[in-house]
């Protein structure tokens, strides 16, 4: 009997390999000796390109992964007696092993519910009145996820409303942008720019994901409010996130920022997710949330889940009793989508 071939195409957008542009950049930058710790031309160019993408001067720092990016950024915003507002499904709450609390020295995450994993000012207002005086942590920051943990996207108008709400109450705004490329690619169809989604809407700091967009071990922490970046380089170093051979991270960013490759990869992943989503709906399955970025969240009956797993497919239950997540990436092929739909059809 032939062994079932494991198939991870939809388990996560982390299961894909490096995009060809990043892989080529790693090889190209390996040709000579250059200054270390970011004092090289590739790193200077990457920071300049990011400023061009976002149409503003900003302070940029590169770290190895998204957990470090989020935790260090929030530590720059908060003291240990502060609190951070975030959605109950936010990655900083569910998947970072207490890293935000650890790096802030104890800042409390205050969880807020909201439909489709999105926050709104109406849901945030009651939280501001919890506790009394020094007996409750002082709320200092608002953390948003773009695109969200359920694959939905904040519009610039929604971001602006949340940032206005936060700033009026003395709160800084952080965005976990592990999948920012997917959100930016989706909203580009409406003429929305990266600047519109971030600093023009009031965002103070963005953690811009590179890993899920095809890079190896590199995320960018971008401070639009540059006052908040004071001594951030020391946080990066102390936490073990300063790469001695930083040119290898920076070269990858230069490769995907050039010619808008980063958004093309995001658009490809989004497009494959829509095809997969439409195909599942055509089979009579119900979506948990609309497919707006590169994630498909769908109710799958237990018998269908079992049948797909027996065919080698790996994916995760994500919300509710039968809500499963199927993630597409820069590398998701037409064949991946067709084979999954064919197996779902046969199993159904």
CATH structural class of the largest domain: Alpha Beta
**Share of helix, binned:** 25-40%
Major sheet details = 7 strands, mixed
Low confidence ranges: none
Q: TL;DR?
A:
With 348 residues, the protein is an alpha/beta fold. It has helices at residues 20-28, 41-54, 66-77, 91-94, 99-104, 121-124, 156-168, 180-188, 194-197, 232-238, 247-257, 261-282, 302-310, 334-347; strands at 59-63, 82-87, 108-112, 138-145, 172-177, 205-209, 219-223, 295-299, 316-319, 323-327.
How would you summarize the topology of this molecule?
Elements: H1 20-28, H2 41-54, E1 59-63, H3 66-77, E2 82-87, H4 91-94, H5 99-104, E3 108-112, H6 121-124, E4 138-145, H7 156-168, E5 172-177, H8 180-188, H9 194-197, E6 205-209, E7 219-223, H10 232-238, H11 247-257, H12 261-282, E8 295-299, H13 302-310, E9 316-319, E10 323-327, H14 334-347
Parallel strand pairs: 2-3, 2-4, 4-5, 5-6
Antiparallel strand pairs: 1-7, 6-7, 8-10, 9-10
Helix pairs in contact: 1-11, 2-11, 8-12, 12-14, 13-14
Tell me what the structure shows.
- With 348 residues, this protein is an alpha/beta fold.
- The chain has two domains: 20-259, 3-Layer(aba) Sandwich (Aspartate Aminotransferase, domain 2), CATH 3.40.640; 261-347, Alpha-Beta Complex (Aspartate Aminotransferase, domain 1).
- It contains 14 helices and ten strands.
- The protein has helices at residues 20-28, 41-54, 66-77, 91-94, 99-104, 121-124, 156-168, 180-188, 194-197, 232-238, 247-257, 261-282, 302-310, 334-347; strands at residues 59-63, 82-87, 108-112, 138-145, 172-177, 205-209, 219-223, 295-299, 316-319, 323-327.
- A seven-stranded mixed beta sheet has the order 1-7-6-5-4-2-3, sandwiched between helices.
- Helix 7 (156-168) links the parallel strand 4 (138-145) and strand 5.
- Helix 8 (180-188) crosses helix 12 and helix 12 (261-282) packs parallel to helix 14 (334-347).
- The longest helix has 22 residues, at 261-282.
- The protein starts with 19 loop residues before the first helix and ends with a helix.
